[in-house]
Amino acid sequence: MDYMFEQGYNITEYEAAWHLTEYRRQNKHYWSLAYENISAGPNATLPHYLPMKYGAWMIERDTPTSSEHRDDSGGQYRDGTCDTTRTSHFGRPSVDQSEAYTRVLQGHIAIDSAVFPEGTTSSQLDDGLNYMHGTGHGLGSFLNVHESPYRFSSSVALVPGHVITNEPSICRWGMRIESVLAIHRVKVC
């Protein structure tokens, strides 16, 4: 997502979160937000940072402290709930940032493509890395967006019908990729 508008001016973290909310409201079957949308530049290292209207950081392409940017957005729709996070980088990432993001992406792909026997728990799928943030959580429709009892540190078996997020992250850099997954049976040949 590019935060430079047609007029060519930068916007704040608060304004970016507001625009995320407006995009959600325009979607078919939109009912409400699942939580306050988060847009974080220099504050991306704080997992549940919420930008305030006054004093919010400006999102710029070449911020000396950090060019990372994280958007965390969720909505309640008549046909389901979503919880999504994406990380962007404006400028050229360092080698450490590139390696960290690659690790997060590899973890995300591994969970997304996992095929496992029935009765497997999410903790058996977790790679055991300490992200300083959970690898994922249950997702309720019109309930709590962080719904128990299943999450990636849980000993509860994942069964068809469970809906869970896949969100490995490295908080040191403010990097996270989050998508929603549905557990279903597959035929293995």
Automatic annotation (TrEMBL):
<feature type="compositionally biased region" description="Basic and acidic residues">
    <location>
        <begin position="64"/>
        <end position="73"/>
    </location>
</feature>
<dbReference type="InterPro" id="IPR036005">
    <property type="entry name" value="Creatinase/aminopeptidase-like"/>
</dbReference>
<dbReference type="Pfam" id="PF00557">
    <property type="entry name" value="Peptidase_M24"/>
</dbReference>
<dbReference type="GO" id="GO:0046872">
    <property type="term" value="F:metal ion binding"/>
</dbReference>
<feature type="region of interest" description="Disordered">
    <location>
        <begin position="64"/>
        <end position="93"/>
    </location>
</feature>
<keyword id="KW-0464">Manganese</keyword>
<dbReference type="InterPro" id="IPR001131">
    <property type="entry name" value="Peptidase_M24B_aminopep-P_CS"/>
</dbReference>
<feature type="domain" description="Peptidase M24">
    <location>
        <begin position="10"/>
        <end position="183"/>
    </location>
</feature>
<dbReference type="GO" id="GO:0016787">
    <property type="term" value="F:hydrolase activity"/>
</dbReference>
<dbReference type="InterPro" id="IPR050422">
    <property type="entry name" value="X-Pro_aminopeptidase_P"/>
</dbReference>
<comment type="similarity">
    <text>Belongs to the peptidase M24B family.</text>
</comment>
<dbReference type="InterPro" id="IPR000994">
    <property type="entry name" value="Pept_M24"/>
</dbReference>
<protein>
    <submittedName>
        <fullName>Peptidase M24, structural domain-containing protein</fullName>
    </submittedName>
</protein>
<keyword id="KW-0378">Hydrolase</keyword>
<keyword id="KW-0479">Metal-binding</keyword>
